[in-house]
Write a structure and sequence with these properties.
hydrolase; mainly alpha; DNA repair; about 160 residues; oxidized pyrimidine nucleobase lesion DNA N-glycosylase activity; DNA-binding
Length: about 160
């Protein structure tokens, strides 16, 4: 669909038939973040690796829906802290598309959902099962500490709505 270059305005703004240049639509913080993330992801996809690297998991590509859902829900308004990166274990972002996102926390506590596709290449010992993955990261203490701190700050109720 072509985007019109000018919009016809009604009689309250200008005489009928008058044209006005369109104003850019303000995008949300989440939309801007996702757009920049996709741009950077395209640059990263050009990197070439030699042995022993044989398989690269890119959950921003194959787990896009839960990733987008997470960013859209939680990337609103000004932030004091921004976590960048991913949980390097095979049962975090590799499964969920959510940074530092262990499967149970993402699915059950944050309420993030969406299809997780199969990556182009999978290691036979590290299949991507998405939000149905029965395994979890060994360090479950992080979840408890995070919930306690969020509760102290009064933020836990905001996240669980």
């Amino acid at each position: 669909m072509a985007v019109p270059q000018a919009f016809l305005l009604g009689p309250l703004h200008e005489p009928a038939g008058g044209l006005m240049e369109p104003q850019p639509c303000p995008r949300s913080l989440a939309e801007g973040f996702l757009e920049e993330e996709l741009r950077l992801n395209a640059e990263l996809s050009q990197l070439q690796f030699s042995e022993p690297v044989g398989i690269i998991y890119n959950p921003v590509e194959y787990a896009w829906e839960p990733h987008r859902n997470y960013v859209t829900r939680y990337c609103q308004g000004p932030k004091e802290v921004l976590f960048l990166g991913m949980n390097p274990g095979p049962f975090g972002m590799a499964q969920t598309g959510v940074p530092f996102g262990e499967v149970n926390v993402v699915r059950d506590w944050l309420g993030i959902g969406g299809p997780v596709l199969t990556p182009p290449q999978e290691h036979p010992k590290r299949p991507v099962l998405g939000l149905e993955c029965p395994q979890s990261e060994a360090n479950r203490g992080w979840e408890t500490v995070a919930k306690e701190r969020l509760n102290e700050l009064g933020l836990l109720p905001l996240l669980t709505k």
